[in-house]
Design a protein that fits this description.
It comes from Flavobacterium urumqiense. The protein has helices at residues 12-21, 67-70, 115-129, 143-146, 174-186, 190-201, and strands at residues 24-31, 34-41, 43-46, 52-59, 73-85, 97-112, 152-167. By secondary structure, it is of the alpha+beta class. The protein has a seven-stranded antiparallel beta sheet with strand order 2-1-5-6-7-4-3. Helix 5 runs antiparallel to helix 6 (190-201).
Amino acid sequence: MYIPDIYKNENQESITAFLRENSFGILINQTNGKLWATHIPLELGINKEGKTILEGHISKENPQWKGFAENDQILAVFSGPHSYISPSWYDHENVPTWNYIAVHVYGKIKIIEGDAVIESLKKLVDKYEQNSQNPVRIEDLSEKTMMQSRGIVAFEIEIEEIQAQQKMSQNRDDKNYQNIISELEKTNKNQSIAVANEMKKCPR
């Protein structure tokens, strides 16, 4: 991904937090000679070798998994809040633009099987059920229900490179920067307000 230096995020703690909070990503690879993409949760983890990985699964009916053996190189794309930035918010003439946060993760993918599949599902369910009034646990599901796990292909991605972009008007002076935040908050749009909140935290 093209990232101007001013928008490059190299803070590993910040990137890790972003990936944990925005784990619904796009898994991209090449399958049958063409690019293929699937929208799925991809969770950060550590494998038995102590390497940072992404864990996930897709349906066996999705032909994308057949491309994993042909070419193990993948790209996972994660997006955060984004919003249109109007040039009318500046104290000088300028052009429209867009503020956003995005992370691209490159790595090698491999299919996992056996107990590792159930463990991966358990971690996924535990994460998203923790705030439920009546949390569901993999351990409590019936054998009949768990038979559905035979219909998925689970995998882990060993991370080789992370590219992170945080385009939050860092190229603006303090006066215009604060005005953009103020105008974003006036929109009453969730995405725009989220961008304003990120701008308040963004190092400049």
